[in-house]
Task: inverse folding
């Protein structure tokens, strides 16, 4: 890959009373869970603005492509909106990426928050616009743990708690640092060959997955391997693999598949079972900023804030 990436910009930190805009760029969100999530953000000290079509439905999408794109751009362009949060994942964000203007998103420099299908948007922001984002909780869960909620708020505000290490299980030893990139495994594989293809050179790659059986995970990791993404990474952090087992073929397990591929392909540290992904204890991670992976202690630590703590929105 020879693409030249723009220098990374960090959005301003969110001060007390800052407004978070909520939109649904992918699948439709349950109304009760959305209301619960909005109330939680308000209790945390933020104002919330829901985009016009946030609750729209069109099959497996939250409204038409035009509606979802209009909502996203409405929040990007709104002067009083400091950050944009996805209501949920599902499917559909990739249908919008080719219609976004990298220059506009870079000028806006707003913090984007989401995971799952939003992996595509976070990756696009790094690779095309050069803006840091948060792979973190959305509003479609009503069981987010207190620890994960506190970490998210700390990262939004640029507070020290957001830089506390996450503990997992060591697989391959050593220590490495670099920009943190990644997200949902199937979305990362889907980025290959696009103008926003994930770039793992010298980076720490983090992955998680939900509802993909072991053979599928093997295939997805094989795509990343054959594209040189695993060998290029400085290390790999693995989050939760949720509902990724097979009743028909109980062995190898999803974890066994991941362990086998990464042991053979990764030259740096690897840590498994970290607390992020499609779980209630989904701890937010910065996309694009520097982190450190310790394969001896089994820890992943952010080395810098995703926001500019000296500038408040």
Result:
């Amino acid at each position: 890959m020879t693409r030249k990436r723009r220098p990374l910009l960090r959005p301003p930190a969110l001060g007390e009373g800052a407004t978070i805009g909520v939109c649904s760029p992918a699948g439709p969100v349950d109304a009760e869970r959305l209301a619960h999530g909005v109330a939680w953000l308000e209790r945390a000290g933020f104002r919330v603005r829901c985009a016009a079509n946030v609750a729209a439905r069109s099959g497996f999408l939250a409204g038409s492509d035009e509606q979802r794109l209009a909502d996203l751009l409405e929040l990007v362009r709104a002067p009083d909106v400091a950050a944009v949060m996805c209501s949920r994942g599902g499917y559909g964000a990739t249908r919008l990426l080719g219609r976004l203007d990298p220059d506009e998103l870079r000028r806006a420099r707003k913090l984007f928050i989401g995971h799952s299908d939003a992996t595509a948007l976070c990756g696009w922001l790094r690779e095309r616009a050069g803006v840091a984002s948060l792979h973190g909780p959305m509003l479609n869960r009503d069981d987010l743990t207190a620890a994960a909620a506190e970490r998210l708020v700390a990262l939004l505000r640029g507070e020290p708690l957001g830089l506390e290490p996450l503990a997992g299980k060591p697989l391959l030893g050593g220590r490495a640092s670099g920009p943190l990139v990644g997200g949902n495994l199937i979305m990362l594989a889907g980025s290959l060959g696009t103008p926003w293809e994930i770039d793992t050179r010298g980076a720490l790659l983090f992955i998680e997955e939900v509802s993909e059986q072991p053979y599928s995970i093997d295939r997805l990791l094989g795509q990343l391997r054959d594209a040189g993404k695993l060998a290029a990474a400085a290390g790999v952090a693995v989050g939760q693999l949720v509902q990724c087992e097979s009743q028909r073929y109980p062995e190898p397990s999803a974890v066994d598949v991941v362990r086998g591929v990464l042991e053979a392909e990764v030259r740096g540290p690897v840590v498994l079972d970290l607390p992020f992904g499609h779980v209630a204890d989904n701890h937010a991670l910065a996309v694009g900023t520097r982190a450190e992976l310790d394969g001896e202690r089994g820890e992943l630590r952010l080395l810098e804030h995703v926001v500019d703590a000296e500038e408040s929105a």
Observations:
- DSSP finds ten helices and 16 strands in the chain.
- The chain has a mean pLDDT of 97.
